Structures are given as structure tokens and as C-alpha cells.
């Protein structure tokens, strides 16, 4: 595209738009005239409006803003976006101006001389190859065009992600997904092989996964026909040249010989499989080192690297990677047959469709080999004896039992695959958006379809088994597709898990707190029932049926291998609702019978009318889903919510007088949906639980389910402080809590939150945000921003600087309407403010927009980097001049972060970040004092993927600290970016949980004395002084944690990290699995990672002194087991002995006995007996239940003494 002068006004910008030919003139003028408002005078803002209105794509706008008006058309095609660039040219997304069909245009780069001849010949060769191939797993070609000197191919456009994008974001894919991807690619290669073609460049970047999980081969640019004489020119020019990609190239291909066959593609496919499941290719090093390793070094054994990896599958990959072609599988069809035992239902169906395009010889070979694989399908991988599981790279494990494989029936079904296309089922789920899994071939077969052939007696289907066990939580039911728990105490449906994901929400208070909601239950307030109908007579009536009875109600649960049928009987004179409560922290979307896909929670009232479209719904939580079908005669179904503080989505059906509700729950696991990748200059909005996460190259933000913004990080620096007292970062604070917000995403970079009392809309740009805040009530409502203590200075509209906390005064002063806030290397400019004030809670700065009744106000937020002049001013004002940002940004480690050591003297730190400028080398240096002495001040090279701008590495580091960690990027020996973190430790990390005396409820805040204790909020590490961040109850008093940290440091001489999660006044009932507090705790544990902390310290019991003997043991055991199950490792728990109320009620026998029982049975380790802390160790002059400063210090020391008993033994191992 030609270059011109960038426009400086909107008039100039529109002139470029008109000259570009993107739209016909009349159509363009019509669309411009239809805009609601005049365009802003600045061209950048005008472009954003046109993007939002669909007049321009972002790519088109970027080119026009750069002054480029030519090159948007190629023949009848209008270019919309740049999809990628390679050695031969560029690939663009385009649309046919008449047909409105989207295609991919591959445009050959202009070259001269022999290079041009080779490029054109290879280009035409790709066209010939693609034209000869017609297969669902190969991208199809529509046309090849020469327009002047320009050559381009018109290709099928596949909306999806190439597999290298998975690796670029630093992660592996699941084994099930990888098997499906590779098998589909092999099906496409089999077709190419039969047509006489060898691809010669199989790699993740040349495999694209469409939104429905279908994988297609890309880039036939190096493909060579084994039969055509038309490839002579490039065969001569390729002679003795190494063609392919070094990470995935076959040994014989690496030698430079032109005569390679399909077995080279099989080797490359094996290397691609290895990369997908581990996060990187088989061999590392320089180009020459990799080529040598392909020749001589065996590929690593996946089963040896990861003991959870099926050894039989590892053997398949090893055979694909054999050094000699004759030792590999001889055709791609052989690869498909070898992978068949590990194919999921969905992948098997896609592979079978792909194989239907192969020739009869291939089909015959598969008929001969697939029956052998069917017996393998029943051989499930048995994990090793109970050990701490070894996690595969990027923390992904393999839940083999959750992968649904087709057994002999599928193989036999394939062997008699019909020649005509099967009829689509009219009952299949509506695929109306990304993440919607394809129909299940078993559960969604049309009723008039022929039955699926049955399996032979010698190969029983393992997924037909239903196992019912009597456990602590209740009657636990497991099949290959789901797990269910029926609570023995009330007979209700309390858990429904698919692929490890919980779909239901328990715990909300009902009937004024007299009962607690379950995942599925009748609601009734007569005949002694108090909201939740308790069905106390629970028993198994046959091996796969559980029946629960209570008074006039009865619920029958029938369990099959693929579904659960619930029949709930009502024998009263009233119409009674039956509710299913979906957990919106896990379940993110619902699709109804009308095909509408809605993000959760959907704002509906309980009084909304019934609607037949809710009779069939499909609920999505990542790749897992549950289809809920109301089979009640004359069904009356609806959804409403959000309900309770948990913001559950309620599905409701009603059982009429002396009638029943009947519904079916059908689980499914679809193909793993690739996570979106942030493009340069772009804005990425993604789901994060019930909220949203926003990412650009300069900042990251989160918007939660109640419309608040709890986090805003600019260049890695956190500006907001949430979860302290009432603060939620950026939020409304009226006189009473706001009603639930209806959260929507009306545009790709816009989040809207609406309620009847207030509304806010966030619009995100690469380095700007526009917040439209609205007070819809009849009372004044403030909108607050609470600044983190990282913010040290502010500048107002009159260029007046002040240290924070600053106070603008009680009178409104216009000069504070626009302010710029500084936090070291980053800054934040705000407009639309009313006043600033502080300190709040002794240290926090507050920005306020005071909204009058019915007022709507626009707040603009501009993020940026502190410049040299500003840094100098900050140094003068605060006494500390910040270091300026460079082109390197570290996301980890962060200041005061502590990493859990692995042995007494050894551990590791994670170094993760990104570099904005090109670089060819990355180095790290760690300095400071370890337990064994000072570290050498030497730079170490970090491994970085070729051409990657992001990096992540685990760096072995001795136990000790604080360390200074320096990371730098170099280009040609010159530093292009660097960043330093001053306080990083490798020591001991602990998670705290429980009620008030585990959190910030002490009489006074205390501080650490060692300076070696830090606290983790869930997103940021802070020096470990009170109040502790990250607690669920947002209390802000004193805690025992600083004293505990000091005592631990005194003994072990390593930094101590703590993460407190407790909530005051809570019973163990409120920490039950599935409840809010349990999830809060597990989230913090997961944030620290597998083996990322030493233990959980539990201090709770004061609220449970009236429990019956044994009840506390049962419920604590369930909680501990849930956390271990959710985190995937055997987390050690310490449980304190505690029941103290006041000087007259020092101890209570039941909780103390149960706490001791937990120690004796090995469920938990022994914690301190804090009932012994009486007198002036308690607040209110010794009369209170919480601790005085003296008591907090004694409490911390007691914990350290108990932990030391265990830790000394661990360190001695």
C-alpha cells in the first residue's frame, strides 16, 4: 500500500475513506449520513466511531490513519484485515464486493530475478496442489489470479486460530484436543498422499482449528507432487536446500534431499503433537543444534516426562518421530488408526468425516486396522500408585477418565460408514456461538435414525458404568461423563460436575436464613417446610436410581451413562416450583430453544412470564456443557436472576397440584476452544469467571459482575485498591446496595452494566478508556476510585503537583476535574472528577465523581508512561525518582513476591513478561544473599521462542532473599529493554482461612519487625503489615500474620509469604464445597499454583460450638478434600484448636474434640490451642473474643511453633 501524509483532521480522514474504494460512493455517503451524531474533530476518535458502527474495520482504519488510501481492492475483493505474513507474501481477509463472501487472499510478495521465478513457480505449485485437493481437512482454493504484476490466490477463509497461537500464549493443549487435531491433520495428509503430494512443512502454524474444532492444513507452498513433471523448476532449485521448519523437520528432509515422501510429513506431525501437549518442540538450541538433534538424538519420551501421560499414546508419538522413515507409520491413515483409541466422540466424528474423503484402498486399510484399536479403547490408562501428581508443562494435567472415547461400536460404525451423508438430527443443540460443542452422536440421534451398532461382548463400553458410593458429602454418582452428589441430609441435588467443572451453586440463605439453597430443590413454606423442602428418607431403589422422600414430596434420580433424569413429585394442593441454581462463576453462557446465546447472569425477574423457549437450554462452562430439557407435561419453564449474593442463575419449572416436574440433564465436553490472543495495537476482552478481563499492550483491567473495576494495571503497575473495607477499586457507593447489574458486551471493546438505579458503560481503546457513569436514582450517588499506595503524586489541571493523599477541599474546585496520577513509571489521567480526598483508612487516596440525581457523566481515562521531566518532578516531590519504563515489561516476578522453595536450599522463580522491541537475546541476573551465601552477579540467558515477543521461564534460584532480579533484552549486543524488581524471595508461603481470628479483626493493626514478610492479595504482593489484603470479609483491623511471619523468618532465615482469605463470624457450614468461601479459598490456592505454598492454616470453630459430635469432622473433611481435588495436589492443612467466646466461656468440648479428631485421623496437622490465650491477650480489656496486640503476637508465635514441627521434618527429607 502506498504511503501518504497522515490526516490531521476528520475532514482529511474522510477524504481518504472516500478515495479508498472500500465502499461505493453512494453507499458510503448513506452510511455516514446515518450516524447518530457528528464525528469528533480528531481523526483517531472519528475512526473509532466508524469502527464501532461497522463502516471500517480496525485494519482499514489503521491504514487510513497512516495516510494510505490505495491497495484496499484486489479485483472484486475488498481487503478487511491482515491475517498473517510469511516468506512468500501476505494473507488478507477480504470480502467479495458483490457476493459478500469472505475469503482469504494470499498475495505473492514482489521479487526480481531467479528469486521471482522460484517464488512464482512455488506460488503456482501451491495453487495446483490446492486445486487438486478437495478435502474437509485441507483449506480449499477458489481461484488463482494475476492482476498486473500481482499474483494472488483466493482461498477458503477459516475463522479460527492456527495451532501455534496456543504455544505463543505459553501453554499446551489437553491430550484429548491434541489427539483430535493430529488425527484430523493426518486425515487431510492421507488425501494429499493419495493425490501424490507431500506437504514438507507440517507445523502448528500450518494447522488451523476452526471455531467448531475442525482442523485444516494450510500453506501448500512447499508441497511437491511425487508424480507431476510440472515441479521440475523448483525441484532443481530446491536440490540440496533444506526446506521446511527446523523445529519440526524430518531427519531425511534436513539433509537437503529433494526426494522425501509422506513419511517426512508423519515425522513433522509427530513433532507437532509433541509441541501441542508440552508447549514446545522436541528439541531446543540453535538452528544447527536442532538439525543435529533431529538426526541423532531420540525425541523425549512423553510418558517419562509426565507420569500421567498414557504410555501407549507416548509410544505412538515415539513411532511417528522415529529417525528412519521405515520405522515410522507408513501412511497418515496408519497414524489415524493408531490414535483411534484416544479420540473423543467429537474428534472421532470429524476424523471419520475426513477419512470418508480418502480412496477405497485407504478405507480398506482402516477397516483392517480400526477393529484392532477398538479393544484398546477399553484399556484405560491406570495412574501410578498415590503420589503427588507430576503436572505437565503449563500446569495442564490429564484427566484420562473424563475423556469420552468411542469403543468398538464406533469402529464398527466406521467400517460400514454409509456412502450417503447422514441426516442431521433436528434435536441437536443450536451452535450459535463460539464454545458451543457439536451434537453428541449418541444423545442427539433422531428418533427415526438407525441404531448405533452394538459393541461385541469382548469389548464392553466402560462409559456405560454408573458407580454409586456412600461418601461424606452424600451419595456420590460417577460415570465417564459426569459426577453427581445427592445430599443425604436433605435428598437434594447438591453437585453436578462435568470434566471437573461444577455447574450448580449451593449456599444461599432461604426463608429468612432458616434453610440454605441447594443446586436443585423444591421450594415450599407450608406444612413445616422452611423454603428448602428437605427429603430426609434417601435410599437407592435399584443400582442406578436414588429416591428421596419427605412429607408430600418425592424426587427420583435415574442415572444413565450419558444423562440424569430427575422426576420430582408434588402431592400437595399447591403448585410448587422446582429450582436448579447455576453457578455463574463457572457457567458463562446459556443457549435456549430459540437459539439465543446469552452471557450469564441473565437479568430476569422471578415474575417474568413463562416462555416455551426455555424448555430446552444448554449451559456452557468452557468446553463443558449441560443440556437441560424439561420433559414435564405442559411444562411451565423460565429462568430468572441473578439470585442471592452468589448471583446464581435460576432455572424454574413448576409441579402442579398432585403432579410432577420431570427434566433431563445431559453433559457434554466439546473441543477445547482456543483462547483469544492479543494482537499488536488491539484490545482483547475475555471472560474471567462472571466478570471480564481487558488487555492491551499498555494496560490490563478487570470488570466484575457488579459493574466495578477492581484492578487496573498500567505497564504492570496496579493503580486501584480493592477488597479493603467497602472499596471495590472503581465503583458506585449509594446509601444502600445497588440492585444486580445486567452485564453485556454490546461491542468487542465495550462492556455495559445496567440497573434501575445506576448504569456504567466502559469503552476500551489501546491506551484510553471512556467510562459513562449514570445515576438513575432520585438521590445523589458518588462514583469512587480508590488508589493503591503505589500512587505517590497527583497533578491537577493548573499543573499543580501534590503528594498523595491529596485533598482538594470541601468546596468543588474545577482545577481538580482533570488530574494525572503517578505510580512510578506509569501514569493515569482522569477527567470528569468532582474532588479528591484522603487519607481514607489512614493511607488511601480517593477520587470522586459526585453524581446528582439522574445525572449522566463521561469520565475519560488515559494511561501512559512517566517521562523524564515527570520523573524528575516526582523525585523532587517524594524524594524518590522512579526508573523510566523501557520496552521490556515484567509480569513476574513482582515486588515482594515470595516463591515456595522445594528443598531447604533450593527453589525457583518464574520470569514472565513481554518485549515491545525486536530482540535476539534475553538475560536474567539475580543478586542478593541466599542461605548459603551471596549469589554471583552473573547474567544468565533465558530461552525464548523464535520471533516471540513474550517470554516465560522457570529460573532455578537458591532459597533466600530479598533478591534483586534484573531482566534485560538485547539486540546485536545492545540493550533494548530492561527492568528490575528489588524484592523477590524464595522461602515459605502459607494460605490462611477461617473466621475472625484468622482475618483482620484484631484490636489494633500490627507491623512486621523483620521486613521479610509479604502478603498476597490475589493479584498484588505487599509488605506484610496489617491490614492483610485478600481477605473475603474486607476487614481492616489487626491480624496474627505479621507476628507469624517474623517468628518464621527468625527461625528459617528466608522470606515468608502469606495469603489470608478468611471471613469473620462464619461457620464451617459457610465454607462447604461449592459455596462462595470455599471457592474464594480455592481461587487463592490456584493463583499460587501447584505446590506454590507450604500449607493452609485454618483457625475457626467459635461459630460451631453447638454442633453435634462428629459433625465438624465430617464437614471439615469434605472441605479439605474439596480443596485438594480442585487444586490437583495433596495440600497440607493445619487445624487449630479453638472455641473461645469470652472469659466465662473459654472452651467448648465438641469442636475441640472434633478438631483433635482431624489430627488423629491424619486429615489435618496439629495447629495451636488458642483457647489458652486469655486475659489481656483478648481485646476489650480481656472481655472480647478477638485478640489484643499482645494476643496477636502470641497467636502468631504459637502458629510458628506448630508449623515448625512439621516443616523441620519436611526440610530434613
Automatic annotation (TrEMBL):
Pfam families (alphabetical): Pkinase (PF00069), SASA (PF03629)
Record's compositionally biased regions (Pro residues): 448-459
* Chain sites annotated for binding ATP: 106
Q: What is this protein called?
A: Protein kinase domain-containing protein
**Region labeled Disordered — which residues?**
354-394, 421-466, 1166-1185
Q: Which SUPFAM superfamilies match?
A: Protein kinase-like (PK-like) (SSF56112), SGNH hydrolase (SSF52266)
Q: List the SMART domains hit by this protein, alphabetically.
A: S_TKc (SM00220)
PROSITE patterns to which the protein is assigned, alphabetical: PROTEIN_KINASE_ATP (PS00107), PROTEIN_KINASE_DOM (PS50011)
Membrane-spanning segments: 398-417
Keywords, ordered alphabetically: ATP-binding, Hydrolase, Kinase, Membrane, Nucleotide-binding, Transferase, Transmembrane, Transmembrane helix
Q: Which GO terms describe its molecular function?
A: ATP binding; hydrolase activity, acting on ester bonds; protein serine/threonine kinase activity
Q: Which residues does the UniProt record annotate as the domain Protein kinase? A: 77-343
